[in-house]
Amino acid sequence: MAAPPIPGRPIDVAAGLLFRQGRLLITRRPDGSHLAGLWEFPGGKRRPDESFEACLRRELLEELGIEVAVQDCFESLTHAYPEKTVHLRFFVCALLSGEPRPIDCAGLAWVTAEELSQYEFPAADSRLLRRLAQTPSLWTLSQ
Length: 143
Known about the structure:
Helix content is 15%, strand content 37%. By secondary structure, it is mainly β.
């Protein structure tokens, strides 16, 4: 179990960008969670004793039942919500084993660049969403 965040200190979050045949994997936040019902990139909170990469591998196994190779950090940003501040790092990942299934999320979808704008994401993801739209080469990554 992760230690509670220190008040005023950003919460570190690692998230994965997993592409397959021109589509990107997104997940829906579960009911009862912060920003419930919004779509996001799978991942979660970093524990004090782990790297962002180790956090992402652990979270994707727990949430989706998949093993990934964590590659380059595509985006790093900090966003202040009224109730907390998050520091997010988004990594490009390659699927090593398993097929994503919604174990600890409300759903998942594989979306094209054109479909991405049809989903509602947290405000913290807005800069990343713009970069994804402006980087068509990412969408050609596949397994």
